[in-house]
Amino acid sequence: MKNRKNLLLVVLLLVVVAVATASTYAWLTDTGKTSDITYNVGDVEYNISSTQTTSNKIVPGETFGNITITNESTVSTQIRVLFTITCDKGTLTVGSDDTYQVILTGQNAKWFKSTAFNADGDTNEYYYYGNSSTPSVENIAAVQTPTNLESLFTGIQLNGKLVGNSYSGAVITISVTFQAKQADHVEWSEMGSINFTTGIN
């Protein structure tokens, strides 16, 4: 009788061990599949150049300067441009039609002015590279060799209708600031700026 009890105890113990082993095995071998993740590693790099060389005073209506933006990035990017103007004789604004004192001439449709895409909370109106009719910011593809973006404008001039004699002798500084970022990640970073300083005859 005692032997039968001992045998039953051994059998029950083996069953418990077997169940525990099976549970442990299932726990160790059970796997779940996560979705694929792609990490992009590369450089955001642009070269900015300008044909604006004059530091002399200008007259309203005279066209001067343009800017070439060359993409040398190894990852997909986005770019935006901010114009800031200071004048020692009053406030001047910049845009692409006759309602502005400073006019961008020959502005390209690939660029549009907006605050809607300032996810970082910046309240400035930037010119974004993209689709102006939607509007939407374009993811600019990585390049193997340096590639020029379509020009933001072909020149810049003072609007003679709005910049009158009261601005005669004024000193004007036009600062053009460029920011870019990896298309789907990180925040905007300043790439540099070009400053035009001139005066009005």
Major β-sheet profile: 7 strands, mixed
Low-confidence stretches: 4-31
Order of helices and strands: HEEEEEEEEEEEEE
* Extended strand count: 13
The helix fraction, in percent, is 10-25%
Globally, the shape reads: elongated
The proportion of strand residues reads: 35-45%
Q: What is the arithmetic mean of pLDDT?
A: 78
Report how far the terminal alpha carbons are from each other: 121 Å
Count every helix, treating DSSP H or I runs of 4 or more residues as helices: 1
Name the structural class.
Answer: mainly beta
Q: What radius of gyration results from the CA coordinates?
A: 32 Å
Would you mind describing this structure in some detail?
Mean pLDDT is about 80; it is low at about 5-30. A hairpin with a 6-residue loop joins strand 12 and strand 13. The protein has about 200 residues and is mainly beta. Strands 2, 4, 7, 8, 9, 12 and 13 form a seven-stranded mixed beta sheet that branches. Strands 1-3-10 form a three-stranded antiparallel beta sheet, with no helix packed on it. About 20% of the residues are buried. The protein has one helix and 13 strands.
What's a concise summary of this model?
With 201 residues, the protein is mostly beta strands.
